[in-house]
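Handout, section B. The chain below has 108 residues.
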Amino acid sequence: MPADPALPVDAAQAADGFVDAVRRIEKGELAFPLPGSGRTAERFAALRGVAEAGLCTARLVEGHVDATAILAELGEPPPLAGELWGVWAAEPPGEGLVASRAGQGPSL
């Protein structure tokens, strides 16, 4: 993917790294075991490896592999080759984190 001159260099590099990482996942060169599979250390090690190349890229990859994990939990097929998925700030039903102003600053 050529760099978009409207994007900061870091954003263009993150986008390129994201696309490359997803291609490597599709080819089986980079694996993210599903949560709850007993292979959390391997999942975190894979994410750490991506993060060593760039934190912005790792954040995008994390959203993609989390979306893939959710699809698996729902019994749905994984994304098709070339599809880039993402999910962030997802939480289960029920009470979540709430921010409010308390006195001089925010309170969680």
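Note. The helical segments are 9-26, 40-53, 55-73. Compare this with the example in section A.
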